[in-house]
Amino acid sequence: ADADAAADSGGALAIGHQSGALAVADVDDGSVRKLPARAAEVQSLAWAPPRASGGRGDEKSKDTAVLAVGGRGERAVTLWSWDTKRARASLRGTLPLPKCPSHLSEAQRGRLWLCVAWAGRATIDAPSSSSSEAAAARANANANEKKSDERWLLTSSHGGDVLRWRIDLDADEGRLCVAPPETFGPPESAHARTVFSLAVRESAGGGGGAIATTTSLDKSISSWSVDAATRAWSACGLGGFAYDMDVNPERASQVAIACGDGTVRCLDVEDHASRGRGVVGDGGAVLFRGLPRTKATCVRFRPIDDDDGFGFDDASGSRASANSIAAVGLEDGRIVLVDAMSGRYAIQRDCHAGAVSDVRWITSPRGDVVLVSLGNGSVWRWTSLAVPEDRRRGGGGGGG
């Protein structure tokens, strides 16, 4: 069995397994703490963003992180509190998915992939096509004078739907979800098949709210306004199933997609948005192409780091940014570092014994940015990495 998903919060790495096992590992000392196992496969994990100061539970929650866990068998998202000082976990609540629509076929009902992502602070007065119950709940929230720390939690759902939950991180157990989940719309803009990956970024300038990007088994990618819960645009022609994607933290308009045909493709979100709403038949530029029939299973950009100790010199002799580096995991167990700006790459010498299921860049408490990869049931912390260089010279190097 493989570890299915990982998400980091400071030096803590959350790991989910196909068996339902959950654990949190410390990337500095390698210690592992197990959480109570779930009854179903873990498919996605996401740490909530840092808590807002001054909330109702500010004192008691400053050393507590919240972890969202998506699992297909339970058809629900579970929320866990992780005490960073005592290394203990407690179950905060469970968010069951809405009932499966009756129009879905039997095959579609059994093909759920439950991915989760946090989208920052919730906008209480956000426009949406929600039900009257959700609208009434928003009105009650506006009338509530108590200060709360409400966040958007986005999840996939049945038949290609994407849901938006408003979660109060300061609420007591059983009262985390402030309102019923809302489905992104309109209905005709939903994916035709199961949503397989979900990423969130802040819009350019930070004033336009968060933007969610989804990929699906229908081989398309869609961009959504989180506050309005509506689709901005959709693009097709990815060349294969999209297994994973990530947003470049240095260039928020750039999305990298790991595809089943062995390629990593880059889309410029702002370019697509400028063409207006609707479907665009453009799968983006090919950033990396692996061996035939070797899937690119995961991709993750290196986080922005002011101390650019991982940089390298480009052909012109100038210093290239480490923040444009993306780690790519392949089905054959290899790890590749790709420079999203130049297209150069380096294949690491060490190789997992099976498919790489996830890669993560983690900033340790000491401020170091390290790469962690999951494959064939093992977790590797990379101590040295070969940096991307000219393709004609090839990659090679590194150690896990």
TrEMBL record:
The organism's place on the tree of life at top rank: Eukaryota
InterPro entries, A to Z: Gemin-5, WD40/YVTN_repeat-like_dom_sf, WD40_repeat_dom_sf
Biased composition (Low complexity): 126-143
TM region(s), chain numbering: none
GO cellular component: nucleus; SMN complex
Region named Disordered: 126-150
GO annotation terms (biological process): spliceosomal snRNP assembly
Molecular function via GO: mRNA 3'-UTR binding
Protein name per its UniProtKB record: Anaphase-promoting complex subunit 4 WD40 domain-containing protein
Organism listed in the record: Micromonas pusilla
